[in-house]
Predict the 3D structure of the following.
Amino acid sequence: MAVDAADPLLYPCPAFAGLRPALADLGDEVACAVRPQGLPGPRLRLCSADAARLLGWPKPGDDRAREQWAQVFSGNQAAAAHPALCTVYAGHQFGNWAGQLGDGRAHLLGEARGLDPAQAMGHRWWEVQLKGAGLTPYSRHGDGRAVLRSSLREFLCSEAMWHLGVPTTRALCLVDSDLAVRRERLETAAVVTRLCPSFLRFGHFEHFSHSGRHDALRRLVDHAVERLYPQCAEQANPALALLREVVSATATLVARWQCLGFVHGVLNTDNMALIGWTIDYGPFGFLDAFDPAYTPNTTDVGGRYAWGRQPAIAHWNLLALAHALLPLIDDRDAALEVVDGFGDAFEAAMAEGMRAKLGLGPQQDGDVDLLRAWFDLLRACGADWTLAHRLLAAVVADANAPPPQRWLQLFDPWPQRLQHWLQALRQRLQPLSAQERQRRAQAMSRANPCYVPRHHLLQQAIEGAGLGDFSIAQRLHQVWRNPCEEQPGCEDLAAAPPPGSPPPVLSCSS
Ligand code: AMP
Ligand code: MG
């Protein structure tokens, strides 16, 4: 069915149909026009009303509207007013220079003005991007496709992350098809439509810097300043000011990841967004039993991107960005100093996040030791990260009551060590009134989610979807909209994986 972009009734997003992405002004060198290949027989399977609302778009209500969305967000009907755009970038992958990469399977459809900048961390625009709509000039050896399994993971996890308070690309909808795609085995194709104020990656800047195209680098930096960090425009050295903002946003982001137990899995510089939001959900994972060395990515044999290494890797990636920006910053020492600010910024954000998780309130002497002992305890016991924090609120709420049995069980068989830590915590909280303890416990319940996108739950959704049943995915999508509120009948979604389950691992193939 052909969709007429000029007809506001037929086109699901009339405002967006006419909006040419600002990136198009940067020239072919940065972003070239490409028509998506689209998908045969596209089916709209999942749609995020929350994400649609950001743009002021209603969720498609009837079959006709669903068919229209399927056609548009499969890439079958690229906006008529302008073609889709694909950008070129480069990157460091696993610590090595990988050279030119680019949008190998991502098409920028256009951009839309957000209804409320407060819903976008102050940003006014949302770029609308398809992932998996076919070949591009940057597909290299790839097929331009994304499989249903990985698209479903990205849709569900990115929306959940937003509700968990993590800056992240959003997922508008997921469209699938019977089109066969070969990975380790034969699978089927899908397209996720992502939203982000900007899909610029560190790798975009690396590409133009390392190939010596400094005019394009400058245009890109000017665009990023104007769009993402306007406060830098008036600074004496805007590129340096930009770097400082990215360092700060990245430190906050990684602290959120660490506090949640999120492991990105492939923290290459081409998977780091300049805006400081989470981007590119591949072999990600959440900590179940706490192990700082946990990485969900089977390709990452050395554990470069393990949970415990994410802060150091983010710092490394920021150095790569600084290096790329040097032709414009023109002051090596100043750039280094700015990047070295990452350590303190991350430590401060992490300490604040962990104090909130433990109900510690304002910083005090001894907090570092208390936190270190907590990490040691979790690690020694392999306690479940999410549950150990979630159930801790009950310990803080009442100084005299014994800790809940469900919480104690997580630390089996280390009661002695646990007693020591509990004693230290109780001492720390001892001056608090009963009322203040209750208040802290309530705040802890907002800092410690009970529902996170655990691997085994995503697997259930994938298995259902593979049989054409998206009800599990829809349930997860719905419950993860309120991750800190216990929801009746959802105990199964709060539980740790069955005992004895090995830590989940995934290949990079998607
Ligand atoms: P990733 O590991 O998903 O971050 O991808 C690294 C690079 O490979 C990016 O430039 C992607 O656009 C590209 N890429 C990944 N998968 C495909 C695919 N199936 N077809 C074309 N390009 C791809
Ligand atoms: Mg990527």
Summary: The first helix runs from residue 14 to 17. Confidence is low (pLDDT under 50) at residues 1-12.
